[in-house]
Amino acid sequence: MDRLCGHLAVMAPGAELAGMLESVDLAGLSGHERVMVLRGWSRQLAHVQARLLEAMVAVAGAVAAETRWGDEQTVFDLSSSEIGAGLSWTRGAAEFHLGFAQDLVDRYPRVWEALDSGHIDLPRARVLVEQTRHLPSELCDRVCEQVLDKASNQTTGQLRARLQRLVIAVDPDSARKRYEDGVSGRRVVSEHNDSGTGNLLGLDLPAAELNQAMGRINRLARSAKSADDERSMDQIRADVLLDLLTGRDAGARERRRGVVDIKVDLTTLAELDDNPAEIPGWGPVIADIARKVVSEQADLEWRFTVTDPNRGEVVHTGLTRRRPTTSQKRQVHAQTPTCVFPGCRMPARDSDLDHRHAWSEGGPTDDLNLAPLCRHHHRLKHDRWELEMVTPGMFVWTSPLGLTYLVEPVPP
Q1: In angstroms, rounded to a whole number, what is the distance separating the alpha carbons of residues 343 and 123?
Q2: Residues 6+ apart with CB under 8 A from 57
Q3: What is the rounded distance in angstroms from the CA atom of residue 142 to the CA atom of residue 148?
Q4: Would you call 331 helix, strand, or coil by DSSP?
Q5: What's the average model confidence in pLDDT over 205-211?
Q6: What is the radius of gyration, based on Cα positions, of the chain?
Q7: Cα(317)–Cα(305) distance, integer angstroms
Q8: DSSP secondary structure code for residue 230 in this structure
Q9: Whether the predicted model's global pTM rises above the 0.85 cut
Q10: Is residue 353 scored above 90 in pLDDT?
Q11: Are 202 and 188 spatial neighbours (Cβ–Cβ below 8 Å)?
């Protein structure tokens, strides 16, 4: 069985892998072996989905061959109707999937091949297409080429953030225009739910102000939470939002002053280039937003980090004002800016600083024994997940089933 699972871990998707997976009896496998089977099915599913999308494009090609007189939109309408009828899909579903299939197969052959080979799954393929489809073909190919090698080990959230940063870097002028066009369509929408409740949505809001607003809601919610309050944090945040908008007392006072939290090159602040910046907890932003955030927050506390641009290592941290946090906390947050669980992007500042080796068991309170963990993954660590640091910023998790997951440092 060990040999079988070893094959499943590396076998390319296709008829042979499908037959092997069909023959596996999950009941007789260990937890580790079941994860290997899970990965095999995931690669096989990606392969099947790639072939399904290819078949949709082939159907559209057949329709185009039969409809020589029709324009492009007419051919698309006829093709999506054919697919919808053949698969008993709604018109909207058929149009959506055909549009994506044509994009992927015709314009993104490398991404389609990665999906067909099981290197990435369909959600990752969608992120690649959605984040780059506005780029010229040459830039689109360049961006996808840079991210495909590591895409299989990144969550869709991590992949999206990496793509957004690259898209800004390769074409800052286009990114600036897209942002300005998006903000020009900002609006607030209310909608009713079947339960009698409603949703209040702020759409296409400026990134810096939105991040600042959400930060204030989080601070007010944390301040309002008490031991006898039975509300969840999500409920408290919703109540705080309504209190602020209706003019009622939010019921809490903010406990900390604002702190500038942005990652940006000094050359970008000096307007020598337009490299993308990043607002932790939000994601990549264009250079103009970074400069705006800095100019509007000049009187607040600044925690700065100096890094080696070649190796991405933290070489110094400090503060521009008094009331600093401990140097240990600064060092840990600088080296590991997010929760260190695989795929988690919760900012370190909103996470717990966990002792990997418990303090109650003699674990020291030093940089090498501290790691930021969001509250959820902090609890998970105490439920038989094991965490070890390989080097500063690089961690290895071992699951209850005995599988290991490497978390590599994110360059500051």
Answers
A1: 15
A2: 98, 101, 102, 105, 106
A3: 10
A4: helix
A5: 90
A6: 25
A7: 4
A8: -
A9: no
A10: no
A11: yes
